[in-house]
Amino acid sequence: MVASVLLLVLLLSGSLEFPSLSSPLPLSPTLSLSNPNTISTAVDSIGTRTSHPFRELLPAFSKWDSQVGCGKFGQKFESWKVNSSAIQGTGIQDGDTCQKEGPRRHVSVLVKGWTWIPDNLEGIYSCGCGLSCAWSKSPVAIDRPDALLFEGATPPRTRRTGDPLRVYLDLEASRKPTGFEDIFIGYHASDDVQVTYAGKSFHIGRNYRISPVKRDDILVYWSSSRCLPQRNDLARRFLSLVPHHSFGKCLNNVGGLDQSLVFYPDCAMSKSPIWWDHLHCAMSHYKFVLAIENTFTDSYVTEKLFYALEAGSVPIYFGAPNVWDFVPPNSIIDGSKFGSLEELASYVKKVGEDPVAYAEFHAWRRCGILGNYWRVREMSLDTLPCRLCQLVATRGGRNARDL
Ligand SMILES: *[C@@H]1O[C@H](CO)[C@@H](O)[C@H](O)[C@H]1NC(C)=O
Questions:
Q1: How many Cα atoms occupy the beta-carbon half-sphere of 175 within 13 Å?
Q2: For residue range 5-15, what is the model confidence (pLDDT) as tens digits?
Q3: Which of 61, 287, 298, 325 is 20 to 30 Å from the Cα of 264, by its Cα?
Q4: What is the chain's percent helix, strand, coil content, to nearest 5?
Q5: Per the confidence metrics, is the pTM higher than 0.70?
Q6: According to the UniProt entry, where is the signal peptide (predicted)?
């Protein structure tokens, strides 16, 4: 209650100011608000084990296996409550809704104009239930589109029957339909089609090598080059409390840009590496990655968080109040659940010196996926072509009535 009132104040004031609570919240920062936490595991006894600087992940995992283990972890989160309405379902893979001998259907989507939508989505998809889907930016590949996808540009104001359906995509925090689209794609479950940031399409052509060894001199990785004043201020105040590397333009403390190329030559993918090749591999050398959204709003959980998770690091997260509906249990440290940045910093340091507790933050990927995470991945940009084609087919494609 206190937390939600504070968050409300935070959201209304449009500020990233850290709430200054008079008393710490009685919640474990790794759990969702609704979790009945009865089984205790390593994260519940942080600070009770003797601190033990460590670098190697695999021995830490073995220790956790013998002291806690997937069985107990699974039991603890068996009744973990997430809001399943925060993520859409596909319906495509659902065998019950799909007739085996259904008629074959084909839907084509032409991606219009200049857009960041990645080229690697181009192609033909088999979507199940007899539906095939063609997706391209090329008016030759898609000469008779069933739908036009706009992003960054407003769709035509009118549509006559027989014209392609108008689709508009906006994944920014401030997402808003233009009023001229037939189908709106955003990051929220209430949009016609939801797209989460938990896919591969947001970071193509990068080195996915994950370091098995973590630094023990520097705890936290940060990289931001859009220096928004409020995000910067929060980062500055937190990072001043922990040993960190900041690689981006904002608060850079590694001697300039592109230093990850110098620090981590093992991450090079080619003879002329560029910093974003290194991003994933570079952050994997750190136990923690600071991830602060540009806006704190419901369901706006971006690649900043998923990227760190995939790099085998533990995100320290400031962003969507319902972030636990998007991530596996015990996978992140939710910064907003601490009474102060000092408390957060001290917690992070303790976890960083406790191989068993730290290993528990990786249990989600070793023991099997719990919570909404399975569907969060399923609803990513990677699967957008089939999901959009499915909806276009349902609406009747070009032959849909004027809306
Ligand atoms: C569950 O998520 C949906 C979609 O984000 C939201 O509208 C609803 O208020 C949430 N319910 C609860 C109980 O938080």
A1: 23
A2: 344 433 444 34
A3: 61
A4: 35, 15, 55
A5: yes
A6: 1-22
